[in-house]
From TrEMBL:
Organism classification: Eukaryota, Metazoa, Ecdysozoa, Arthropoda, Hexapoda
Keyword vocabulary terms for this entry: Glycoprotein, Membrane, Transmembrane, Transmembrane helix, Transport
Compositional bias of kind Basic and acidic residues: 486-504
The protein, known as: Sugar (And other) transporter
MF GO annotations: hexose transmembrane transporter activity
Main location group: membrane
Keyword Transport found: yes
One Gene Ontology term, aspect cellular component: membrane
Transmembrane segments: 12-30, 66-87, 99-119, 125-146, 158-176, 188-208, 272-295, 315-333, 340-361, 367-386, 407-429, 435-453
Subcellular location: Membrane
């Protein structure tokens, strides 16, 4: 079955639908990176507001705390949005959820844009929080929608488009954030307010796109609507293979048709894929990448670069992210998810050690500040190869239609919680550990590499049904006792589901 859909190509309408959806991930990338460059301008604004209100100067320590709130409140909103993603996907559909979410994107962007006019940094916090909720919902809904409309043979490469959109958003925010453009005391509110653009554009483009055929067929049982959507996406009237794959998935998942978050957490059958999904999300955040995204400008300054050189080095990070994500798109379906993730984590581990070395000897050797820039760029290259896109994609691939929304919600919540921890904790960690700042990330990277090597299965070119079977029958890395308990648990669920459907009939004991 894995090879049966290989003739399906990338049609115009599928491309259009994916472009319309990934504007949500561009929004996420833009708002992750936008706070980095205008750090000093925002701090100056906060100082002015504080002095006008209280008639005295604010302490440096307190201004640092206020700024880290502006950075990390985005992640609190993201947690809330990410966790609501599963409910929203089932209640309004994947496309419907994305459309509604743009209301939050426009509201958050407007609040941030009018922060300076209103002379209130609380408005900035509120705007960052609301845009965080918007981005959290996007990180849940967009990968779900794309994985469900993509043909099997293109699912990996198209899943990487999520990360490409994130990196383009990041690069855009970094380029616009330089002093020559919007990184000024007057320009930074416009820089933050531009977050309304992806939301407005998606509101215009997305209504033409179809709802996810999987959602229409499996969740809503609207086969004719699903066929219509597939015919448009595939630009072909023969969609029986796609329908049959969905039907097979539906039959395999009959016992798990409506799995709530609590049922997912308590199900022994789904525990292994859930743990893998969670650890994959942690491997993305605790790799140290967000320390680079949020604080790279100040990181480069502390390694010996001038303020302006540091901003241009940060743009270099964004450009390399975009280039490497483009490189990883064809690799995703050729090399496989697990292999790329191992390469990514291994490379990041090596470069995180180099970053620490460059910090330690920068006082002794002048050119060491350039080693820290090169090491940081290398660190980012390997992030783009694996941990950048694979955790989002593999979580959507490890679960079938029933538990997928709840699984995505849990994975996204974990991702945003870890994002928040790094965002709020990194400045204190930098003060406490000084030159050894990246050492904890090196330790985490080693742990995640070992976990991926031992526990994560390859999902390349496998149907959702085949992936579930890996956990049902053991994937080589699980012991037979676990496998046996998973199989018996699955059988019990299926038997109890049949019994509940046939409560009026007596049980048959004959074979």
């Amino acid at each position: 079955m894995a090879g049966c859909c290989d003739t399906t190509g990338l049609t115009f309408f599928l491309t259009y639908s994916i472009f319309s959806a990934v504007l949500g991930m561009l929004q996420f990338g833009y708002n992750t990176g936008v706070i980095n460059a205008p750090e000093k301008n925002i701090e100056n604004f906060m100082k002015d507001v504080y002095k006008d209100r209280f008639g005295e100067d604010i302490s440096e320590e307190f201004i640092q705390q206020l700024y880290s709130v502006a950075v990390s409140i985005f992640a609190i909103g993201g947690m809330l949005g990410g966790f609501s993603g599963g409910w929203m996907a089932n209640r309004f559909g994947r496309k419907g959820g994305l459309l509604l979410n743009n209301v939050l994107g426009i509201t958050g962007g407007c609040l941030m844009g009018f922060t300076k006019v209103s002379h209130s940094y609380e408005m900035l916090f509120l705007g960052r929080f609301i845009i965080g909720v918007n981005c959290g919902l996007n990180t849940s809904l967009v990968p779900m929608y794309i994985s469900e409309i993509a043909p099997l043979n293109l699912r990996g490469g198209l899943g990487t488009v999520n990360q490409l959109a994130v990196t383009v958003g990041l690069l855009l925010s970094q380029v616009l954030g330089i002093e020559q453009i919007l990184g000024t005391n007057d320009g930074w509110p416009i820089l933050l307010g531009l977050a309304v653009c992806p939301a407005v554009l998606q509101l215009i483009l997305l209504p033409v796109c179809p709802e996810s055929p999987r959602y229409l067929l499996i969740t809503k049982q609207w086969e004719e609507e699903a066929r219509k959507a597939l015919r448009r996406l595939r630009a072909s009237s023969t969609v029986d293979e796609d329908i049959e794959e969905m039907r097979a998935e539906e039959r395999a998942q009959q016992s798990e048709s409506h799995i709530s978050t609590m049922e997912l957490i308590c199900s022994p059958t789904l525990r292994a894929p859930l743990i893998i999904g969670i650890v994959m999300q942690l491997s993305q955040q605790f790799s140290g990448i967000n320390a680079v995204f949020y604080y790279s400008t100040s990181l480069f300054v502390s390694s010996g670069l001038s303020e302006e050189s540091a901003k241009f080095a940060t743009i270099g990070i964004g450009a390399i992210m975009v280039a490497m994500t483009l490189v990883s798109i064809p690799l995703m379906d050729r090399t496989g998810r697990r292999t790329l993730h191992l390469y990514g984590l291994g490379g990041m581990f090596i470069f995180s050690i180099f970053i620490t070395i460059s910090f330690l000897i920068k006082e002794m050797i002048d050119w060491m500040s350039y080693l820290s820039v090169v090491s940081t760029l290398g660190f980012v290259v390997f992030f783009a190869v694996g941990p950048g896109s694979i955790p989002w994609m593999i979580t959507a691939e490890l679960f079938s239609q029933g538990p997928r929304p709840s699984a995505m919600a849990i994975a996204v919540l974990v991702n945003w919680m870890a994002n928040f921890v790094v965002g709020i904790g990194f400045p204190s960690m930098k003060t406490a550990l000084e030159n050894y700042t990246f050492l904890p990330f090196s330790v985490f990277l080693a742990i995640f590499w070992i976990f991926t090597y031992k526990k994560v299965p390859e999902t390349k070119n496998k149907t959702f049904e085949e992936i579930l079977a890996l956990f049902r029958h053991g994937n080589g890395s699980e012991d037979t006792a676990t496998t046996r308990s998973i199989k018996s648990e699955t059988e019990e669920i299926e038997i109890s589901s049949r019994d509940s459907d046939n409560t009026s009939r007596p049980k048959q004991h004959n074979s």
